[in-house]
Amino acid sequence: MADASTIDRIAILEWGDHPCPPEHLREQLSGLDREVVVRSVDDLADCDGAVTVYHHEEFLDAVDWVHTIRSGYEDFPLDAYEDRGITLTNSTGVAGDLVAESAIGLLLTLAKGLHRYRDKQANSEWERIPWERPFELAASSVCVVGLGALGSSVATRAGVLGMDVWGVDVRPVSALGLDRVYDVGRIREAVEDARFVVLTTPLLESTRGLIGADELAAMRDDAYLVNVSRGEIVDQDALRAALEADEIAGAALDVFEEEPLPADSPLWAMDEVVVTPHAAAQSNNYGEKVAALVATNARCLGAGREPWNRIV
Known about the structure:
This protein is α/β, with parallel strands linked by helices and 312 residues long. The protein folds into 2 domains: 4-94 and 283-302, NAD(P)-binding Rossmann-like Domain (Rossmann fold, 3-Layer(aba) Sandwich), CATH 3.40.50; 96-275, Rossmann fold (3-Layer(aba) Sandwich), CATH 3.40.50.720. It has helices at residues 22-28, 78-84, 96-112, 114-121, 149-160, 187-191, 213-218, 236-244, 286-302, and strands at 9-13, 35-39, 49-52, 65-68, 87-89, 141-145, 164-168, 181-182, 196-199, 224-227, 250-253, 273-275.
């Protein structure tokens, strides 16, 4: 663990177009009893901690503590951090409720066909979609793949709306009150009866490509795939093929294998696909939530206690 006495100056990295600007996060941390500055990655010589979106090699020789404002940390070389004695923490749990709200919004959008009306609005078209196209969310089922903080939040909200909810996880999960929880090895069985499949699992080697041609083929032909987790969890070529062949009814995708989604991707033009630009966690209070976690960990390190969400 980083020496608490060294965490006196925390640098917030300039990270470009992330929805929470570094200056806003610094403002949210103005009450912290440590100096907080906004710096570029090549200006960390006098800093002890760094708040970042991604890993930078400069961290390995400059700071004692790194906090990523994401929950994912697949780009961080954990062995190198451990060898250098650098503490790494992440933001798991911060965006869970925010992303879950977005996921529920996408379920409602797909169920009611709201995206089709938005498309028509651009051309001032007053036209209903076919009467049999919208359906009742409360009479529908959802399989949530990944029942951590985010998945649990999605499952709880879906249950409140009256949906039949079950899930997939590597652990038995009973606290959510779900009727069914499948081991990941039974994922095809888990998704075959669901009207919606919502992906909320973290990106690991074991989850990369978790949803491929076989899993998509196992889904109902009136089912929708919703991905608010990581793009690499889905084989995007297989998804495109399944959509083009009407093997599933549609999808709502906030994340992609390549981001930004290339302009020539056929997903843009598909009527039953909703594309959002990795924005499910975006909220006017995101910076406040991250700042609270950063401040807590700075104080934990200052008192020699274990920080929250420690990875290394």
